[in-house]
Write a structure and sequence with these properties.
Helices cover 42% and strands 21% of the residues. The chain is α/β, with parallel strands linked by helices and 602 residues long. It has a domain of 133 residues: 2-Layer Sandwich (GMP Synthetase, Chain A, domain 3), CATH 3.30.300.30. The strands form five sheets. Strands 2-1-11-10-12-13-14-15-16 form a nine-stranded mixed beta sheet, sandwiched between helices. An eight-stranded mixed beta sheet has the order 7-6-5-3-4-8-9-19, sandwiched between helices. A four-stranded antiparallel beta sheet has the order 17-18-20-21. The longest helix is centred in the N-terminal third of the chain and has 25 residues. The chain is globular.
């Protein structure tokens, strides 16, 4: 059945999969399951309540919250009521929230709790179009006002008028067209104010169809539960963690938070998880650290299993047959090591999806050698998230895969990658000049990513066009591969490479505090304060060894000549990272100008 809008998908699948699990979430210390008929009831209540409160066709409905079931109820209910939905990251400040709400002329905003309510309330005088605020968690003694209500009261209203608005919800699903706007997703704003990316019902439907044509034989056959922990305000998670899940009748399981993620793996036993490279970097570092203190027998056994896995990985990647002795060794390694590693993630994982930034090839190879498949892809918010993707049995580690069916990717003369296809966004919200500037004359979207496409069609990303470092000697250097090398160290949590208009490259390094303090205890430095420890000559010598190890894999002009250790990580709250954890390079360079300048004196 070919749908003309996503509302039709929801109404059809609410019926088709009525008794199947649609959602899992933690409540009262255990995971609860909602079935599709439960999801239909709640989303119907949300849609009816919005209509009863005066939501007009194509009004904007915004969500300001961390991931939770109510996030999805508000999003799907807003769509069913004929609204255009959008989201604000929970980490955004009040001014940033006000900008998006005003830009959209939002009629309704759903907020998570008292803290988020206070953000909106503090700027309410400037929000001329905002008519109602719905609060998921009761905000305690917050002053009563007609402009806000609790989600519980909102649902009660929806239940009381659901029959009244049932035909209207069905009529909306009949009248929406593929070209109609479904969502507006705001870019993270690394170089300026965020822009609203307008994505249509057709963008989402055709992108999902393309994804299923590319990887559906694994997804449809083997995946039932998708564990979601990336923010749903992010384009990739909105598509893969929500819209794709409900399109295919699968189950969306919410992780509680990043700190409980490993426990949630055990509780949910997911078959699919969408993540960003930082998760794999951290797990890789923890495994390396654990091996250092493991008994000799375990270290030897792991090293043997890894060696077997690496041989198998290279042969599988190149579609070569496995010798029978290697097949036997691989089966034994699976029983002794791989299954135990897989059990850490619940034991049923079919594959990870990695996006948002390039994944280090060595880390991808390491996981694949342990029989854990990471399917890396690439795209943009403007591409409804994905444009290319590897698959579990057709991949090139280090690449981001081949273009999805129906999507064209080509390379401009300056190395920028360009995309054309039904996944490409309609426009930037009320920014016609910026929209026009984002396309080539023949209709390709200019991604801003620098990359390569080999003769077989595999796509490789090297860096962002606007983030290339140009040294005073004229070398164009992408910082991302160097930063990836540095964070492979178990002692380095974050790395920032600098060198624009300078003679050589330097780095700001954020130590992994747990690993560094563990090292300090082993060396007898545990009484030192954190800041004093990072200035200790022997600690600096150890970090120099880590930098030297990374430098050995780099061309001379790409090597780090000097570094400084920072006592605190880069963060969203301090404005150094976007909500999607991309570095705001200008902010970091301005904040640490004194340290950067110091490394070039003399």
């Amino acid at each position: 059945m070919r749908f003309s809008n996503y509302n039709q998908v929801l109404l059809e699948n609410f019926r088709k999969f009525a008794r199947q699990p649609a959602m899992m979430y933690k409540q009262g210390g255990r995971y609860r399951t909602l079935r599709y008929n439960d999801l239909a009831s709640i989303c119907g209540e949300v849609a009816a309540a919005l209509l009863e409160l005066g939501l007009q066709y194509r009004d904007r409905v915004v969500i300001l919250s961390d991931n939770r079931p109510e996030w999805t109820f508000a999003d799907l209910g807003g769509l069913l009521a004929g609204g255009i939905t959008s989201a604000i990251y929970a980490t955004n400040l009040a001014e940033e929230a006000a900008y998006i709400l005003n830009d959209l002329e939002a009629a309704v905003v759903f907020v998570e709790d008292r803290d988020q309510l206070e953000k909106v309330w503090s700027v309410r005088q400037r929000l001329a179009h905002l008519r109602r605020i719905i609060v998921f968690d009761p905000p305690g003694d917050f002053p009563a006002d007609d402009r806000w209500m609790t989600f519980e009261a909102f649902r009660r209203l929806g239940r009381s008028v659901r029959e009244k608005h049932r035909l209207r919800i069905q009529q909306i699903a009949r009248q929406l067209q593929e070209s109609d706007t479904m969502c507006v997703i705001y870019t993270s704003g690394t170089t300026g104010k965020p822009k609203g990316v307008v994505l249509t019902h057709g963008n989402y439907l055709r992108t999902i169809e393309s994804l299923l044509a590319h990887v559906g034989r694994y997804y449809l056959r083997d995946v039932q539960r998708n564990l979601s922990f990336l923010p749903l305000a992010h384009a990739l998670e909105r598509l893969a963690g929500q819209f794709l899940v409900f399109y295919t009748g699968k189950c969306l399981a919410f992780a509680q938070n990043i700190d409980t993620l490993m426990d949630n793996f055990q509780e949910v036993r997911p078959q699919l998880v969408t993540a960003v490279p930082r998760l794999f970097e951290k797990i890789y570092a923890r495994i390396q650290e654990g091996l250092e203190t493991a008994p000799l027998v375990k270290r030897v056994l792991f090293a043997w299993a890894l060696k077997v896995g690496l041989r198998v990985s290279h042969l599988v990647e190149n579609k070569q047959a496995l010798p029978w002795r290697l097949r036997l060794a691989h089966r034994l390694a699976d029983r002794l090591i791989y299954r135990k590693v897989k059990q850490v993630f619940g034991g049923e994982l079919v594959f990870f999806v990695s996006g948002g930034a390039p994944l280090n090839r060595e880390i991808a190879r390491f996981f694949h050698a342990l029989n854990l498949v990471i399917v890396e892809g690439w795209g943009a918010t403007e591409a409804t998230a994905p444009a290319t993707l590897n698959t579990p049995d057709d991949f090139r580690l280090g690449s981001v895969g081949k273009p999805l069916p129906g999507i064209e990717v080509k390379r401009a003369e300056d190395g920028e990658l360009l995309i054309r296809g039904p996944n490409i966004f309609k426009e930037y919200w009320r920014l016609p000049q910026e929209t026009a500037a984002s396309f080539t004359p023949d209709g390709f979207y200019k991604t801003g990513d620098i990359g390569l496409i080999d003769e077989q069609g595999w796509v490789y990303i090297t860096d962002r066009k606007k983030q290339l470092i140009i040294t005073s000697g004229g070398k164009n250097i992408p910082p991302a591969p160097i930063e990836q090398r540095l964070v492979q160290s178990r002692l380095i949590e974050q790395a920032f490479v600098h060198g624009d208009n300078r003679k050589y490259l330097t780095a700001l390094l954020v130590p992994d505090r747990a690993a560094t303090e563990r090292l300090a205890r082993q060396r007898g430095w545990s009484r030192l304060s954190w800041k004093t420890l990072l200035q200790h000559p022997d600690v600096l010598k150890i970090f120099q060894q880590e930098v030297d190890r990374a430098n050995r894999h780099l061309a001379r002009y790409m090597q780090i000549k000097k570094f400084r250790l920072l006592p605190e990580p880069f963060s969203v709250e301090k404005g150094e990272l976007t909500p999607t954890l991309k570095a705001r390079r200008k902010v970091i360079e301005a904040r640490y100008k004194h340290l950067l300048d110091e490394m070039y004196r003399g």
